[in-house]
Amino acid sequence: MNSLIVLNKNDNVGVSQFIIPEKTKISGQEISTIDPIPFGHKVCLKPINKGDPIIKYDQIIGFASKNITAGEHVHSHNLEFKDFERAFRVQNKKTIIDEKVDTFFNGILRDNGQVATRNYIGIVSTVNCSATVTKMIVEKIKYSNILNDYSNIDGIVPITHSTGCGMNTVSEGMQMFQRTIDGFKNHPNFSHVFVIGLGCECAQVSLFDESLKKHNRIHFLTIQDEGGTKKIVEKVLSQIKNLLPEANKIKRTPQSVSHLTLALQCGGSDGYSGITANPALGVAADLLVKKGGSSILSETPEIYGAEHLLINRANSQETADKLMERLKWWKNYTSINNSTMDNNPAPGNKRGGLTTILEKSLGAVAKGGKSILEDVLEYAEPLKNKGFNFMDSPGYDPVSVTGQVASGANVICFTTGRGSCFGCKPVPSLKLSTNTAMYEKMEEDMDINCGTIAEGKEDIDKVGNRIFELVVNTASGNKSKSEINGYGDEEFNPWQVGVVM
Fold first, then answer.
1. Alpha-carbon span 242 to 141, nearest angstrom
2. What's the pLDDT score for residue 210?
3. Under CATH, what is the fold of the domain 111-253?
4. Is it the case that residue 340 has pLDDT exceeding 60?
5. Which of these, 387, 382, 451, 392, lies nearest to 419 by C-alpha position?
6. How far is CA 411 from the centre of its chain?
7. 301 — alpha (psi -120 to 50), left (phi > 0) or beta?
8. For the whole model, what pTM was predicted?
9. Three-state secondary structure call for residue 199
10. pLDDT tier at 476 (50, 70, 90 boundaries)?
11. Per-residue pLDDT tens over the stretch 180-219
């Protein structure tokens, strides 16, 4: 009850497994607590002088802002962020893939060779002005219950947002937006897609009609060309009803897990995220990569302070330079917007035991496992190289996941310590709890409890294997908790960068 988790012999802090009262003897340590220690928070293991580094994971997570006594609670009141040089070395590396194809999931093979994990119909708005029409169409289909007769169709999804106009058509923001819309409308988890614009917006449908040369399943319409709201709603409804038999005409067949691309995500992190769920997810991601699949880590502000761990795994100097360039971009971006890279963690993260962005990032990168870093992608850029990839994005979960799905992710694993609830249609999202207390409190939202690692009931590899098996089963059609609860219609959130005119 009064023991601590000490992650490395060089650490000068340990993590509490329970609420520890003050003046409590710590089992296995020659110290007693000076303060009450909240669950998941840090305890000083030996005296730390003001200005000295505080070490967790055998890495610097911050510096003492005052002298800290052994047994004292270590948190924001006595630990501060300071930037410092981080050592890294790039060596050309190559991912080793197990050539023996021995793991399969029941996937949906599309005519163009892509493999889907779900079978939705999508209504994609190119601009906020067409969002209402998009939702009208979806609501009418849902309320008609017509999909009840087509059991192989998972549903109809409105892809709406608050942008698409008021920006320079050749700006960085428009390029990001175009990649995002392209990624969703071309996603294999949509059997058919209707792309709907207003007609006069900056994001003209002509920006996206290159797809017509590749897919006959994508349809483009504008409200103005069709003669207004009622006419376009009626036309699209009629077209959807006509294509339902075709969309339903699919069957799941054994497909290699090399067709899976796993989005690695965390939100509502706590002091256990980097100890349990994140490294366990890293094991699952490594298993997928070894079998020829891919994984995408993202949230650039939340690798800041741990970027050296990724650069050390880069396959080339070119890949390392891409990552450093994105961090440089972010430092400038935060600066010109009167912010800083250390304006993180969030209040909920801090209540859960995290203090600085350094500590949060060191735990966050564990989701990427130990695989070689194959490429660094721009936001929503299509995946080019199989294996472990990093995609530039904000740390805000809906924006980050939107980019990962646009890049090609067809399964999402989302770790959480505080209890984030999330889904992102058309891709299934699995929720991984970092601690047992939260899992038991929110079991209807959580798919796996990784808190068993901290309790000593399972090791990281065992839980990682369980996660991998769940990914395969979910890709095969088994519903995740977020799907059962109906999440995913409102979470499309493209990154908006630049001036709104």
1. 13
2. 66
3. Rossmann fold (3.40.50)
4. yes
5. 451
6. 10
7. alpha
8. 0.95
9. coil
10. very high
11. 999 999 999 999 999 999 999 999 887 776 655 556 789 9
Give the whole-angstrom CA distance, residue 58 versus residue 98: 31
* Distance set, CA 93 to CA 309, 326, 385, 471 (Å): 14, 21, 14, 27
Point out which residues pair with 456 in neighbouring strands. none
Amino acid symbol at 115: V
Task: Look up residue 152 and give its two tokens.
Answer: 């192989």
Place of tokens 């997570």: 61
The answer to whether 121 touches 190, Cβ cutoff 8 Å, is yes
Task: State how far the alpha carbon of 348 is from the alpha carbons of 280, 357, 420, in Å.
Answer: 22, 13, 11
Average pLDDT over residues 135-148: 96
- Whole-angstrom Cα distance, residue 291 to residue 283? 13
Across-strand partners of 266? 415
Q: What is the mean pLDDT of residues 314-319?
A: 95
* Strand pairing class (13-16; 42-44): antiparallel
Helix (H) or strand (E) holding 242, with range, is: helix 229-248
Q: What is the pLDDT of residues 240-275, one digit of tens each?
A: 999 999 999 999 999 999 999 999 999 999 999 999
Q: In the structure encoding, which two tokens stand for residue 324, read together? A: 């450093």
Sorted by sequence, the CB contacts under 8 Å of residue 347 that are 6+ apart come out as none
Please state, in angstroms and rounded to a whole number, the distance separating the CA atoms of residues 159 and 146: 20
Which of helix, strand or coil describes residue 266?
Answer: strand
Answer for the pair 363, 61: CB distance below 8 angstroms, yes or no.
no
User: What is the distance between the alpha carbons of residues 470 and 402, in angstroms, rounded to a whole number?
Assistant: 22
Q: Give domain limits for the chain.
A: 1-80, 111-253, 258-484
The predicted structure's pLDDT at residue 50? 98
> Taking 60 as the threshold, does the pLDDT of residue 170 lie above it?
yes
For residue 102, the model assigns a pLDDT of 82
- Topology classification of domain 1-80: 2.30.130
Q: Nearest CA to 344 among 333, 352, 356, 335?
A: 356
416 bridge partner residues: 433
Q: What is the 3-state secondary structure (H, E, C) of 473-495?
A: HHHCCCCCHHHHCCCCCCCCCCC
Angle at 295 between CA 362 and CA 113, to 5 degrees: 170
Specify the amino acid at residue 369: G
Tell me the C-alpha distance between 238 and 221, whole Å: 14
